[in-house]
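Z., the sequence and structure:
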Amino acid sequence: MGWVEAIQKSIDYIEENLVDNSLSIEKIAKVTNSSVYHFQRTFFLLTNMTVSDYIRKRRLTLAAEELLTSNHKIIDLSYKYGYETPEAFTKAFRKQHGVTPTDARKQKGHLQSYNRLVIQIHVKGAEPMQYKIVEKDAFQVVGVKRTYNCKTGENTFGIPQFWDDVHKDGTNDLLIKLGNGQIPDILGVCTVEEHQKDEGLMDYWIAVTYNGEVPDGLLSYTVPASKWVIFEVHGPMPHAMQDAWKKIYSEWFPSNTYRPTGTAELEVYTDDDPTAPDCYSEIWIPIK
């Protein structure tokens, strides 16, 4: 099953079980035969929202429709759509629609509707992706890391903050001095340990390639030997990098026979001005 087909299958499953309060990301990921981490990450790259956000928005859309077309009590609708109390339902409803359930039933104000997603692949021949495939032995990186919850989308805002922090506290400068030049740039390394996969967790490293004793205050990680597909990324950060990840999963993988191995993935940042329109960076993905 390809990534796009798997995500569409997950959406179909979500839609069939929106009023099932036992619906969980773990169950949805199982439908796609992937770990929670890889399912959640791919879903976000293809849809620009987390699975939890999609479920919440769709449930509140259906709840609003029922308010207008039925006589069901608000308390009953709150339980039906997964809220433990009417107060929690009202708070979430107001946040999405801008009005309370009571006012919505009285047709006061406008409602915000989120339609069922349909994943489509668009062929964009005018925008070719520059890439190469290389094989590389295992190598060591040293740096700092933080753990993020992909179920909540914590990684999407946490990682940019992480980069800000290492620039402010001098860690970035320290790492640049340490790098041995095997990959002559600073790296963002995405790793998922076996025990993290079904929890939707990932580790993100800011690191450099380095051999030898690990300096105090830093950690080390061995990136396994792999066949890599290396994509060129052109443009200012962070948008160019984010857009490239989305294109890789929505355009490149669906049209190629390669699949990610699930081991460490790299973002390679050069010393170009990150705000420059011609800033150059790379994405490395291990493939099989």
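Residues 3-105 form a domain with the Arc Repressor Mutant, subunit A fold (CATH 1.10.10.60). The chain has a mean pLDDT of 90.

Let me know what you think.
H.
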